[in-house]
Write a structure and sequence with these properties.
single chain, mainly alpha, Rossmann fold, Serine Threonine Protein Phosphatase 5, Tetratricopeptide repeat, five-stranded parallel beta sheet, 49 helices, 5 strands, nucleotide-binding, ATP-binding
Length: 933
């Protein structure tokens, strides 16, 4: 089919969009991202998308990203939904704003008071608004120039991706490839997004386009030259062909030198030639429109240009020249045209125009829009500029747009402000940067501390600086910074002193300095007569962790950890290096509430749309799932956690992502994949001792699984020496003695292996958690051998049956069955059969193969692969339903639609052969799929 010259050789892209809209009309949404360089035809495809959407019966909502609007929160979302809200009657508006979407107006209207500063639920609010819009019928969202879209709008699009397949909503985004990591690059990398990259035109298509512009008689040499000079870029081809037709002579005949002289491959050069032939009024109007961009309101343009008559004359001339579109509102024919005009303006004149635009807009427009123009002005020491930029920064921060807030503050500091104001603005910049760029925050906060007027002011700033340094993995540096601030602070600042000490303890934990530095500050805080709720919460977290790893008092550690989580659930939340400690204690203690708390906090963080909150919780949640043997459920969590960790711009993000993947692959028996993931995680680890220990011990476990016993023993014992130097005894999370004992057993050093296994078993009995004790008993049985081996394995199985670690139980059952089947065939075969069933349910393919092989060796035909046939998604829905959750609660927790929950439950009923939830719960219990976590 011929789509005209603007869509030459775009049949594949048009066909994919037609399929997308047809699917949306059937209730199956999707996303297409059209990505390519400037001029490749993205806008033409976006225009085609609007037509195709209407043809498919979709309600088409369109928007365009704007460089000026980038600093304004939800600018693109506002363009999409404002026509819907404004065109709705009262009843329709009530339906649109139902549920969480009732807060959408406050978010989208810059004149209303929106959510409180940092409110993390904004993304979910706007997501629910779009869901409500789609309930009235299929919707097509078409956004052009998405590379200039504001970050909050893009974050809402990212938030939509997990559930978009269940909505009658299609989205077409068109923009340039992302130049740096951010929401655009995340969209392009997401598996739910289909990326279309239009190719440059072939010589034949270039010739068709040249002849569409210059007439069918256009010289063949001109067509070939246009293709060579432009590389087949449709916009450049069109403009170069038009310039050649206007010039005539050798250029129209295809002479390349003449064509380069006219404009060449750069559109900005062509634009300069066009403007050179226009009147001063037209050039002035073009420059003003380029400066104002999307805000090029005719009245504002007229005021800047010198009156309505000047605007009318200039606009008519620019429309005739093909620079502006026809119509009432001044609008460039293409965004690149606007940028070509903008780049041709002298720097001083550009600054003057932006300053004048800001002054005119200040009378009635929001501060961020005014300040966006001030970003483009030259510094002049003007206090009004500083005040306006600071007001815009406060506005952007309160609307959840910290990157824009920081950009406004950076420009305010260039103006510059007064020395006293400079100190406050640098401090403000550091606090804002802390929420999205810890390395940048460190630079600002160091400068702010140097500018602070007194010791108390420096200590306040150093507390946040210490947090940022810790979160970057530089714990020893943080301890030195914080202890210097504490020494300088002196008496009379108890609350600040306590907060500094909590940060020192956090760094000491990560630096394996808990016994000395950490213990000193713990003792001071424990003896303090009064502590704030925040400090008390952190103190309990540290106490829980220390009691677990050094004292091995499980009951006391769990009690302190649960106190912390109760305080957090009542609103006492914080984000620093101590946040994960209570979860770690409960995971290592095999406590029933560990996964429940993590599931709840994981759902809340995802609904909030916060990568900073969700990434560490997702990381811990996967570790909890792996420790319990829920490998199938962990797989989905792994993908989400790694994706979220990758969004957090800190040096340690790839380390955490690689560690979690290696741990999961090792649990599944995928040794090559585990080694590869671990190698990526270990490539660039900063001097962070606790993290280095975890990675080295994981490497030792991989080496042991590969049969490299000597290397495994060496690494494990090195980890042990580092941990023992700080008094870490608990084998739950750092089972180095186990690895070393098994390695020495393989190497034939029996006495050393027995000593390590016995010590490991003694410590595991003191800790008392079933997973740790069962594992220690199994290892002791392996290295002891003889008549004691089956007794130790039988005890391991008995202990593990009291806890949630199903994979560890399967491993112990396999060892017990192999050891006993010859003397006690019935008991041994039963153990191997149960081990096979559990291994298959856990998704531990390697262990399942070994159990099946052992059954065959014992003369028993292995049973057919066990399972309910439920997919991971069906299993998650079924388990939550069996626990009493309603369909709506399940949908909110899993971030899917209620319709998806109904579909999954129907499939579960069919596969299990049941008719209701009660029967389903019994069936799940019978298959051991719904044991308490």
């Amino acid at each position: 089919m011929d789509y005209g010259p603007s869509l030459l050789e775009r049949d594949a892209e048009v066909g994919r969009m037609r399929t997308l809209f047809a699917a949306a009309a059937r209730g199956q949404g999707g996303v297409v991202l059209i990505e390519g360089p400037a001029g490749i035809g993205k806008s033409a495809l976006a225009g085609a998308a609007r037509r195709l959407g209407r043809t498919a019966g979709c309600r088409v909502l369109g928007a365009r990203g704007s460089r000026l609007e980038q600093r304004s929160g939800y600018g693109v979302l506002r363009q999409l939904v404002e026509p819907v809200l404004l065109g709705a009657d009262t009843a329709q508006r009530v339906r649109l704003l139902r549920g969480p979407a009732h807060r959408a107006l406050a978010l989208l209207d810059s004149h209303l008071d929106g959510p409180a500063p940092g409110d993390p639920g904004a993304f979910h609010v706007l997501y629910r608004l779009l869901v409500n819009v789609a309930k009235a019928g299929p919707v097509a969202l078409v956004v052009d120039d998405v590379h200039w879209a504001d970050d909050p709008s893009l974050r809402v699009f990212l938030h939509m991706l997990p559930g978009i397949g269940e909505l009658p909503l299609a989205m077409v985004l068109a923009g340039r490839p992302a130049a740096a990591p951010g929401p655009c690059s995340e969209l392009a990398a997401d598996p739910a997004v289909t990326v279309l990259r239009p190719a440059p035109l072939t010589p034949a298509a270039t010739a068709r386009l040249v002849r569409a512009v210059n007439g069918e008689a256009a010289d063949t040499r001109l067509c070939a030259a246009c293709h060579r000079l432009t590389g087949g870029n449709p916009l450049f081809v069109r403009e170069l062909a038009a310039a050649a037709a206007a010039a005539g002579g050798t250029a129209a005949e295809g002479d390349e030198e003449a064509l380069r002289a006219l404009g060449g491959p750069a559109l900005s050069q062509w634009m300069g030639a066009v403007l050179a032939h226009l009147t001063p009024d037209a050039v002035r109007v073009a420059q003003i429109c380029a400066v104002l961009g999307e805000e090029a309101d005719p009245q504002l343009v007229a005021e800047l240009a010198g009156g309505p008559e000047t605007l009318t004359r200039g606009q008519d001339e620019l429309v005739a020249a093909g620079v502006l579109r026809g119509g009432g509102r001044p609008e460039f024919v293409h965004a690149l045209t606007r940028h070509a005009v903008y780049s041709s303006i002298a720097v001083v004149e550009r600054s003057r125009l932006h300053r004048r635009a800001a002054e005119l807009l200040a009378a009635g427009q929001p501060a961020p829009l005014v300040a966006t123009h001030l970003l483009e002005t030259l510094p002049s020491g003007d206090s009004w500029v500083v005040d306006t930029l600071v007001a815009a920064a406060n506005h952007a921060s309160s609307r959840g747009v910290p990157r824009s807030a920081l950009a406004f503050l950076e420009r305010a500091l260039q103006e510059p402000p007064t020395p006293q104001a400079t100190a406050e603005l640098v401090r403000m910049a550091g606090r804002i940067a802390y929420w999205f760029d810890w390395p940048a925050a460190i630079g600002y906060l160091r400068r702010a501390a140097a500018l602070a007027p007194d010791a108390a002011g420096r200590a306040e700033i150093t507390e946040l600086l210490g947090r940022a340094v810790i979160l970057n993995g530089r714990n020893a540096d943080a301890i030195a910074l914080l202890e210097n601030a504490l020494t300088e602070l002196g008496d009379g600042h108890a609350e600040l002193e306590h907060r500094l000490r909590t940060q020192i303890i956090a760094a000491a934990v990560a630096e394996l300095d808990l016994r000395h530095t950490g213990a000193q500050h713990l003792a001071v805080l424990s003896a303090a007569p009064r502590l704030s709720d925040e400090v008390r919460c952190k103190l309990d977290a540290f106490t829980a962790f220390r009691t677990a790893v050094i004292d091995l008092d499980r009951d006391a550690a769990v009690s302190a950890a649960l106190r912390v989580l109760r305080l957090r659930s009542s609103g006492m939340a914080y984000q620093d290096a101590s946040s994960s400690l209570p979860y770690l204690v409960l995971i290592d203690a095999d406590h029933d509430d560990a996964l429940r708390h993590l599931d709840h906090d994981w759902s809340a963080a995802r609904e909030a749309g916060s990568s900073y909150l969700a990434a560490p919780i997702g990381y811990l949640r996967v570790h909890a799932l792996l420790s319990r043997g829920h490998l199938a459920e962990a797989e989905a969590g792994i993908r989400q956690a790694v994706r979220l960790i990758g969004r957090v711009p800190v040096p340690l993000a790839p380390v955490y992502g690689g560690e979690i993947l290696a741990e999961a692959h090792l649990a599944q028996g995928r040794l090559a994949a585990a080694a590869e993931a671990l190698a990526g995680a270990s490539a660039e680890v900063p001097p962070y001792k606790a993290l280095r220990c975890r990675l080295d011990l994981l490497a030792a476990r991989v080496d042991l699984a590969h049969g490299r016993a000597e290397q495994a023993v060496r690494q494990a014992e090195q980890v042990g020496r580092r941990l023992l130097a700080d008094g870490w005894l608990n084998p739950a999370s750092h089972p180095w003695r186990m690895v070393a004992a098994l390695g020495k057993h393989v190497l034939g050093t029996r006495d050393a292996a027995l000593a390590l296994a016995a010590e490991d078993l003694d410590l595991a009995r003191r800790w008392g958690a079933p997973r740790t004790l069962g594992r220690a008993l199994r290892v002791a049985a392996t290295v002891t051998g003889g008549r004691a081996e089956p007794e130790l394995l039988e005890e391991a199985v008995r202990v593990l049956r009291t806890g949630p670690a199903r994979l560890e139980l399967a491993t112990a059952l396999h060892a017990f069955g192999r050891r006993t089947w010859q003397r006690h065939p019935q008991a041994g075969q039963a153990a191997l059969t149960e081990a096979l069933r559990l291994a298959e349910e856990c998704g531990a393919a390697g262990l399942a193969r070994r159990a099946r092989s052992a059954l065959s060796e014992a003369g028993t035909r292995p049973p057919e692969p066990h399972g309910t046939g439920l997919t991971p998604g069906e299993w998650r829905v079924a388990r939550l339903a069996a626990r009493g959750r309603t369909n709506r609660q399940i949908a909110q927790e899993l971030n899917v639609t209620p319709k998806t929950v109904e579909t999954h439950l129907g499939s579960v009923y069919r596969k299990l052969g049941v008719r209701n939830r009660t029967a389903m719960a019994r069936a799940l219990a019978a298959t051991d799929l719904d044991r308490p976590d």
